[in-house]
Q: What sequence folds into this?
């Protein structure tokens, strides 16, 4: 699926306005989705220490299947994972790895 | 005739002495003599084009009272003369004691000038 | 008798000695470039200089006459024949009876009003109490005359900001727009399209999805001024760099935005405008802004539009980024309405938000044309797709719904085993269409095993047969979502054809259904070559470029300024506004004339007793 399509799909998830009007009671009583997740599914920004080896850092994510590894700026890389374990799991991974300063979701911003 | 001359002479001598004392430190004891020293004041050049062109410059304010307000205080004007910037140094002749200094920048467009710089103190021996 | 004269001579000597002992006379000034009226000197007396003192001062100058100016202590003194005002000003500069003496400088006093046709709508630059027709913000229209950026007085001093490149990091800019083309940054042969596109990763930041946001922002900064067309920017002449980081629907990601900031800095932009926001702290974004700061670049950002409910939020409580970053090269801008009340949607923050600027009913350039489709003609409605008017669950005049009774209060579930498509072909092939996008709102109640999808096909017919299909609802959980924005770049989809077919499809299995879907606000947005179109927008996005344009003005006027000086001028020189008190760090609305007039307090003062 192309990147543009994925971004717009994420936009669908993110740009929901929970209208003040009521919603109908769903079969099973399900509530409206929580659309606070303002990030691209499976995409994370990995900030490395200045002297770190990017190839070695990339291997840290192998368990999740690295679909893409791309340098964004200086010592920061974008990793796209086949299996997204979620930001909390990757934050733990970052803490355990001395070469990694941070792992954060690739977040979404919108026009104001 | 002698009496008429002596009275004005005494007045003018008293005036002379009090004026000389008044030039020096205002907080001085008033009785002793004080020396005048030269104080070199300098500051970082402002970036405004208006300060650094005709009609612009700085006013260097000084007082013997800490926290003084620049309006009403004595100052030396340091106007722009020529070249890329207005001068950023001037000399003050100040008497023995502690003096407080603030600098204000001004321009033709803004003659009352900038907020005053942070106050600094200098003690004249 | 000789004794008496001798005595008064001593007195005079004593007085002159006291004057010179306390202060050193200022040097005589050169004749500068500024013109001044011959024979006139302006003098402001100190409060303690009474009329007797004033009189003796003027007598010393051998004044031929004088005129008191209003009730200030300023007098215009008519000097004797041959006296030079500049020399007299220098001579008396240190006189303790006065605050200052200066020549009576000559200024061109023409009121600088540009001839742009829509200038009268630009209340933010000149508020005459005008009423904006067909407003997008209803309150305080008209507002209060005088509540504006005071642009006309500033334009007396400067209209050309070309020495300061401003990067618009946004949805791209239609650099062919009639009122922008002359003010675009020259990127040379490396960047012939005035910037870069990080969304499509190519050398052309034209909005290929028809999004107008960045074009509107660019126009507020620097629509060509005084060209008898459209609007004018804060700057009449400028260099706008277009950096596209936001795609269809106006959204973008950290990686593209950080690269966009890096690009702008590397290519020499001194001011970056970011009319965008999000709710989380990003190391990557923060680092990019920090590096911009190291390079001496000013970053002007939006305070935010109140989040999901569109009601003002306090950024000091719920941070909004990049506004809430603390780098000191950031200016965060709130939106004011025509009476300088805080706009109802505008975020604020006593610490995080810095200034306010006009942000409602802002007229500016747009990328081309937007066509709204109300589903009444040309649609193939398969299965249970139908067109509904306003009803219990649907407030818009026209919606595309499945099932057909979706909008009714007691509307039922969609049918099982459905495969229903609704679609229409659009002609996007006209010459001059540089880009197009579709955007719509979707409400849906969908079960996880059923799908709601959008389809695109460049050759007409059913887009779900041989086209591109994009699923809208989650395949991980059943959902109820209201007001989702669905937007697609049709240029990237290869759909700038005569029969670009767009549609929606609902597919259901045998089990577990829900209330279905509703599509509304369906628009085709086109970027047009040489566009000459404009529209009113609201947002802290619109307030931000008012401040960014001012930053460029201030820096053009004072080329020796540092980024910190520029930030200080924009923040500290503005007009105190009640609505911003306690809601911003400065409590002020930006004022262009005062910003040009503003002088920073001198720094680095030292004093050394010379031996």
A:
């Amino acid at each position: 699926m192309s990147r543009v399509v994925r971004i717009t799909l994420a936009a669908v998830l993110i740009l929901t306005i929970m209208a003040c009007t009521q919603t109908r009671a769903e079969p099973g009583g399900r509530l409206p989705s929580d659309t606070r997740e303002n990030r691209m599914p499976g995409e994370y920004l990995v900030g490395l220490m200045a002297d770190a080896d990017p190839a070695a850092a990339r291997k840290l994510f192998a368990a999740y299947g690295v679909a893409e590894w791309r340098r964004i700026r200086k010592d920061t890389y974008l990793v796209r994972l086949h299996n997204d374990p979620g930001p909390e799991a990757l934050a733990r991974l970052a803490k355990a790895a001395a070469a990694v300063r941070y792992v954060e979701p690739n977040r979404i911003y919108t026009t104001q | 005739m002698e009496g008429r001359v002596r009275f004005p002479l005494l007045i003018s001598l008293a005036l002379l002495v009090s004026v000389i004392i008044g030039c020096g430190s205002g907080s001085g004891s008033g009785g002793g003599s004080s020396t005048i020293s030269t104080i070199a004041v300098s500051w970082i050049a402002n970036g405004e084009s208006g300060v650094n062109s005709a009609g612009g410059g700085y006013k260097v304010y000084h007082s013997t009272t800490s926290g003084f307000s620049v309006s009403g205080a004595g100052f030396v004007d340091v106007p722009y003369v020529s070249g890329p910037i207005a001068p950023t140094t001037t000399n003050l002749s100040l008497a023995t004691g502690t003096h407080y200094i603030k600098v204000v920048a001004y321009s033709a467009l803004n003659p009352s000038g900038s907020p005053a710089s942070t106050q600094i103190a200098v003690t004249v021996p | 008798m000789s004794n008496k004269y001798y005595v008064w001579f001593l007195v005079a000597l004593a007085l002159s000695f006291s004057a010179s002992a306390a202060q050193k006379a200022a040097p005589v000034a050169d004749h500068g470039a500024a013109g001044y009226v011959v024979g006139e000197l302006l003098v402001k007396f100190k409060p303690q200089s009474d009329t007797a003192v004033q009189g003796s001062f003027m007598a010393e100058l051998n004044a031929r006459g004088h005129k008191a100016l209003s009730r200030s202590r300023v007098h215009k003194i008519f000097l004797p024949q041959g006296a030079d005002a500049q020399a007299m000003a220098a001579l008396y500069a240190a006189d303790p009876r006065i605050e200052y003496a200066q020549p009576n400088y000559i200024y061109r006093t023409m009121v600088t009003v540009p001839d742009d046709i829509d200038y009268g709508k630009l209340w933010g630059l000149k508020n005459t109490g005008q009423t904006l027709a067909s407003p997008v913000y209803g309150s305080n229209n008209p507002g209060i005359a005088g509540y504006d950026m005071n642009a006309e007085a500033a334009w007396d001093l400067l209209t050309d900001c070309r020495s300061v490149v401003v990067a618009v990091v946004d949805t791209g800019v239609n650099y062919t727009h009639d009122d922008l083309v002359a003010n675009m940054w020259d990127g040379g042969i490396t960047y012939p399209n005035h910037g870069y596109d990080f969304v499509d990763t190519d050398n052309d930041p034209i909005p290929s999805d028809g999004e107008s946001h960045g074009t509107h922002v660019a126009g507020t900064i620097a629509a060509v001024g005084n060209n008898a067309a459209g609007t004018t920017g804060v700057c009449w002449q400028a260099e706008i760099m277009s950096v596209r980081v936001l795609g269809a629907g106006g959204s973008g990601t950290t990686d593209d935005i950080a690269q966009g900031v890096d690009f702008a800095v590397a290519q020499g932009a001194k001011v970056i405008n970011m009319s965008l926001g999000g709710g989380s702290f990003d190391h990557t974004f923060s680092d990019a802004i920090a590096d911009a700061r190291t390079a001496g670049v000013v970053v002007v950002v939006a305070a935010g539009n109140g989040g999901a409910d569109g009601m003002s939020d306090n950024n000091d409580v719920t941070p909004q980024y990049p506004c809430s970053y603390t780098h000191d090269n950031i200016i965060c801008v709130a939106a004011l309405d025509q009476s300088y009340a805080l706009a109802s949607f505008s975020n604020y923050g006593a610490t995080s938000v810095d200034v306010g600027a006009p942000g409602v009913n802002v007229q500016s350039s747009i990328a081309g044309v937007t066509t709204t489709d109300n589903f009444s003609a040309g649609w193939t409605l398969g299965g249970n797709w139908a067109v509904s008017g306003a009803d219990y669950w649907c407030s818009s005049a026209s919606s595309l719904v499945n099932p057909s009774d979706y909008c009714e209060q007691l509307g039922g579930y969609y049918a099982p085993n459905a495969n229903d498509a609704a679609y229409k072909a659009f002609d996007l092939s006209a010459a001059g269409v540089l880009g197009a996008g579709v955007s719509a709102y979707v409400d849906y109640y969908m079960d996880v095993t059923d799908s709601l999808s959008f389809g695109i096909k460049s050759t007409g017919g059913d887009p779900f047969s041989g086209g591109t299909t994009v699923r809208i609802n989650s395949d991980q959980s059943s959902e109820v979502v209201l007001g989702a924005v669905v937007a697609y770049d049709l240029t990237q989809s290869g759909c700038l054809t005569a029969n670009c077919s767009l549609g929606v499809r609902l597919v259901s299995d045998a089990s577990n259904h829900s209330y279905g879907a509703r599509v509304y606000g369906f628009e085709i947005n086109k970027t047009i070559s040489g566009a000459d179109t404009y529209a009113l927008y609201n947002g802290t996005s619109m307030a931000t470029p008012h401040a960014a344009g001012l930053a460029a003005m201030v820096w053009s006027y004072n080329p020796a300024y540092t980024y910190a000086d520029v930030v200080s001028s924009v923040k500290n020189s503005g007009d105190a506004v009640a609505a911003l008190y306690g809601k911003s760090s400065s409590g002020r609305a930006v004022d262009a004339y005062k910003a040009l007039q503003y002088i920073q307090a001198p720094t680095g003062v030292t004093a050394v007793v010379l031996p």
User: Anything to note?
Assistant: Chain C has three domains: 27-105, 119-367+534-597, 372-528. Residues 11-34 of chain C have pLDDT under 50 and may be disordered.
